[in-house]
Design a protein that fits this description.
This protein is of the alpha/beta class. The protein has one domain: Lysozyme-like, CATH 3.40.80. Helix content is about 30%, strand content about 15%. The protein is built from five helices and six strands; from the N terminus they run αβαβαβββαβα. The chain has a six-stranded mixed sheet. The radius of gyration is 17 Å and the shape is globular. The termini are far apart. About 40% of the residues are buried. It binds zinc ion. Zinc ion binds next to loops.
Length: about 190
Amino acid sequence: MFRLVLLLVVFPYLAQSACPTIISRSEWGARAPKSSKSLAQNPAPFVVVHHSADANCQNRQSCKNRVKGIQDYHMNHNGWQDIGYNFLIGGDGNVYEGRGWGIWGAHVPNYNSNSIGICVIGNFQSIAPSQTQLDALKQLISCAQEGNYIRDDYRLIGHRQGSRTSCPGNQLFNEISRWAHFDAGVRP
Ligand SMILES: [Zn+2]
């Protein structure tokens, strides 16, 4: 009987999805942003999913290097203040901190001020992300909800719904279109 009671007391806590391990900016060797500002709407009403449209990375060292490369490209080539996304997800299943929670991004016009932008590293036009990468994405979104970084009634969209692009690739877009909170009604 005692065991049953203990299980009933403990189970709700076990059932909560914990936040994934997030590799912090200092852990991947981020450059400081030139500037940053808070989201205009926080908690954010939107989650926007991207792919990086290039090769995936399979271990922590190669994924750190990829994230650094993306930051360099966004700051040096695009002239942005920082890496564009709020978070990135490597093929190693780790979440990498981009601009982080509550910060105005640079990833899709019209939604930079009111969304959390998450880039799944790899090209998912014709191949799907691994289950590990998808699980990390789901866990990060649950974590955002628990932490009140996104609204309880947040809307999930792909980049192609915000502007004319193939991002996040057909395979990843098809996947997220089956998830809770996906909003098919959003169009560029
Ligand atoms: Zn995108």
